[in-house]
């Protein structure tokens, strides 16, 4: 029963119609519909108090006219003529109020004029602001005219003088009705505004999070404030590339859905590693994952951070390899290449912003990856000089690299023996943390 009543009320208020409207128009529609329903209830309540016999016919005619006016406004609203419904409602209500005020003595109907001033300001949308102001000023002028006529000029109602003492029902019906309607309108407006603001805040939070998923926070803030972000030179930074061995061959044995799911599983884990080591994910290109340290904020630990992240990523891939091998499933092996040097980082272009880096450092890091061995972390001599006091590195010699000649390269085996926990090649101990914090503070 309650469900049927609720459904009928929603239909009467046109909830299904307003659902597809823009937020401001939806709020305007609902406020107008609620006002129509509230006024209809007040008209029905006005039949309850006793009325002098000589005024019964007039009051009943006014009530019927009021219901007819509300019905016309309701039909206009449901047919999509929202502004017309609001204007008709305002004018029809004023005419009815003026009829009661200047015809019947002892009425407090003028109190509804204060509601009439507020109503258009609440229900009419911003694009019709001139209409909104005019509709608010008219009842304001009518209230002044009513007070002037009765209180200053000593005017009388058409059907007699104002009584010195009013009956309770003559006063309370209009007072309670007008102020209740005023309170209801204010409540509905504030509730609608709060709902709209909550939606705006939720959407803003989503858009902010999406922006931060694409760009570093510092760069995102600069773009929001200035509209542009100047590329910046970083004198010392580290770039890392990863690439799966045999990706194409294994991908041919998987469905597109399985392939994307497997890549997502790996890259999502890599993303979590970036957060733990204060690194910046730059992009993925097919099965290649690229990240950097020392950007967008420069620091002294970028090379160490990248190698620590590479050790964690390689450990994850080795674990995945072991699990799949035990199940006789094909598995990917990973090459990682790291190089340190200067680079330019920033955002270029005007659409589809992406934070990227450019310089020979990037090319060399890519060559370190392609010159590496699956399952090993390959670093350049420049990176080795920055991390040799922290990691056990194996010298490979000068390795030929495409279009780069020979590059001094090293394999990273793990942390130095005195910087790691016993039996753990990649888990740092307190001595590591002490040296690391000392380097950060330099």
TrEMBL record:
Q: List the molecular function annotations (GO) for this entry.
A: adenylate cyclase activity; nucleotide binding
- Biological processes, Gene Ontology terms: cyclic nucleotide biosynthetic process; intracellular signal transduction
Mind telling me which CDD domains this protein's record contains? CHD
**Broad class of where this protein is predominantly found:** membrane
Membrane-traversing stretches: 31-49, 55-76, 83-103, 109-126, 133-152
Keywords assigned by UniProt, alphabetized: Lyase, Membrane, Nucleotide-binding, Transmembrane, Transmembrane helix
Highest taxon above the source species: Bacteria
Q: Where's the Guanylate cyclase domain?
A: 238-369
Pfam families documented for this protein: Guanylate_cyc
SMART domains from the xrefs? CYCc
How far does the signal peptide extend, from start to end residue?
none
Task: Note the SUPFAM superfamilies from the entry.
Answer: Nucleotide cyclase
Tell me the compartments it is located in. Answer: Membrane
Gene Ontology cellular-component terms for this entry are: membrane
Family the UniProt entry places it in: Belongs to the adenylyl cyclase class-4/guanylyl cyclase family.
User: What is the protein name stated in its UniProt record?
Assistant: Adenylate/guanylate cyclase domain-containing protein
Gene source species: Leptospira langatensis
């Amino acid at each position: 029963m309650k469900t049927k009543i609720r459904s009928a009320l929603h239909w009467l208020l046109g909830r299904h119609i307003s659902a597809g409207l823009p937020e401001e128009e939806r709020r305007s529609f609902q406020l107008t519909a609620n006002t129509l329903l509230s006024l209809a209830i007040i008209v029905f309540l006005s039949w309850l108090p006793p009325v002098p016999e000589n005024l019964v016919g007039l009051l009943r005619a006014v009530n019927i006219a009021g219901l007819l006016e509300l019905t016309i406004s309701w039909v206009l609203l449901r047919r999509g003529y929202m502004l017309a419904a609001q204007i008709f409602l305002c004018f029809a209500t004023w005419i009815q109020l003026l009829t009661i005020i200047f015809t019947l003595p002892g009425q407090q109907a003028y109190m509804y004029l204060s509601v009439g001033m507020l109503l258009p300001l609440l229900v009419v949308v911003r694009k019709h602001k001139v209409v909104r102001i005019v509709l608010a000023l008219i009842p304001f002028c009518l209230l002044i005219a009513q007070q002037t006529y009765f209180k200053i000029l000593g005017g009388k109602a058409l059907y007699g003088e104002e009584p010195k003492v009013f009956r309770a029902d003559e006063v309370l019906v209009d007072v309670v009705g007008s102020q209740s309607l005023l309170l209801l309108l204010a409540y509905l407006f504030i509730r609608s505004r709060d709902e709209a603001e909550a939606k705006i805040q939720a959407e803003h939070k989503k858009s902010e999070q999406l922006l931060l998923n694409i760009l570093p926070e510092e760069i995102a803030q600069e773009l929001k404030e200035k509209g542009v972000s100047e590329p910046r030179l970083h004198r010392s930074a580290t770039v890392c590339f990863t690439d799966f061995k045999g990706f194409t061959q294994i991908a041919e044995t998987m469905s597109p859905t399985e392939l994307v799911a497997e890549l997502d599983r790996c890259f999502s884990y890599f993303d979590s590693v970036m957060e733990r080591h204060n690194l910046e994910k730059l992009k993925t290109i097919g099965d290649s994952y690229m990240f950097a340290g020392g950007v967008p904020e420069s620091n002294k630990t970028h090379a160490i951070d990248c190698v620590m992240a590479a050790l964690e990523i390689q450990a994850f891939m080795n674990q995945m390899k072991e699990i799949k091998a035990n199940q006789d499933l094909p598995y990917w092996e990973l090459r990682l290449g790291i190089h340190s040097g200067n680079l330019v980082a920033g955002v270029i272009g005007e659409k589809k912003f992406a934070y990227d880096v450019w310089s020979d450092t990037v090319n060399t890091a890519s060559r370190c990856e392609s010159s590496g061995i699956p399952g090993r972390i390959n670093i350049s001599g420049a990176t080795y000089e920055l991390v040799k006091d922290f990691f056990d590195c194996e010298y490979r010699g000068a390795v030929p690299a495409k279009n780069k000649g020979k590059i001094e390269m090293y394999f990273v085996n793990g942390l130095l023996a005195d910087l790691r926990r016993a039996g753990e090649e990649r888990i740092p101990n307190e001595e590591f943390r002490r040296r690391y914090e000392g380097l950060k503070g330099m």
